[in-house]
Amino acid sequence: MRLDKYIASCTGMTRKEIKKALKKVPAFVAGEKVSAPETQVDVKTKVVFMGEHLHYSEFTYILMNKAAGYVCTNREGRNPTVFTLLGDEIKAKDLFTVGRLDKDTTGLLIITNDGDFSHRMVHAKKHVDKTYFLTVDKIIPESAIEKFRSGVDIGDDEPTKPATLELLSDTSANLTISEGRFHQVKRMMEAVGCTVTSLKRLTMGPFSLDKSLAEGEYRLFNDEEMGWVNEKKA
Ligand code: URA
User: Structure pTM?
Assistant: First the structure.
């Protein structure tokens, strides 16, 4: 593969930007300085570009701070989809969201075209913890902590799996759940007499919302995040 294509697939930069950058600072391909964008590199070769060790992946992994008003579906409809927030530099095909957030929910959303990775993150049996920051319309009863710890009836066949509620104020809390049922957080809060007024996902398994991203912004997975993807694959 050409060096500029390799770097583009790892960083999301355009080939033009890469060509310009390589003129200023060469990349290190297997320890050798390389400035020519057309240089052929093997995807298993260690490439260091602008001080970063790149990790080539055949798939694309995007970490987004979802904005309210966008839906997590690939079908075009009345509401704009989260994919409309992606810029032209994201050329990957067949992207989908890893699980879904409601239209009015903000925060951590992972977008990829790696079906295995997505399956590992959202499959009911995998118990990947997800933490949400929520605000509600009424004082959250302290009894909710124990109710959520032991499982609460939200109208499904089974009560919810044990969840952790951390009260932050009378009307705000962090809630960590390991399932991903439809409107789960909103229905759990309704079960203790509160209506959710705002909801933001903070974490999903080892992945956390990147505070440097404004709502609607995104970036490709960094080194550490790619490490978690590849660790599980090994
Ligand atoms: N639970 C909800 O109720 N909504 C979301 O968007 C995510 C979790």
Answer: 0.86
Atom index in ligand 1 nearest the CA of residue 186 equals 3
For 187, list phi and psi in degrees, rounded to 5: -70, -35
Measured distance CA(77)–CA(75) in Å, rounded: 6
List for the chain the helix, strand, coil content (%; round to 5). Answer: 25, 25, 45
CA 128/CA 177 separation, integer angstroms: 8
Query: Are the CB atoms for 177 and 185 separated by under 8 Å?
Result: yes
In the chain the first and final C-alpha atoms are separated, in Å, by 23
Residue minimizing CA distance to atom 7 of ligand 1:
101
The yes-or-no answer on residue 102 being catalytic is yes
Ligand 1, CB cutoff 6 Å, lining residues: 101-102, 105, 183-186, 199
CA of 40 to the centre of ligand 1 (A): 46
pLDDT in tens, the chain (234 residues): 899 999 988 887 888 999 999 999 999 999 999 999 999 998 888 899 998 888 788 899 999 999 999 999 988 889 999 999 998 777 677 999 999 999 999 999 999 999 999 999 998 677 899 999 999 999 999 999 999 999 999 999 999 999 999 999 999 999 999 999 999 999 999 999 999 999 999 999 999 999 999 999 999 998 899 889 987 665
Catalytic residue among 4, 88, 94, 102: 102
User: Of 182, 181, 188, 185, which is closest to residue 152 (Cα–Cα)?
Assistant: 188
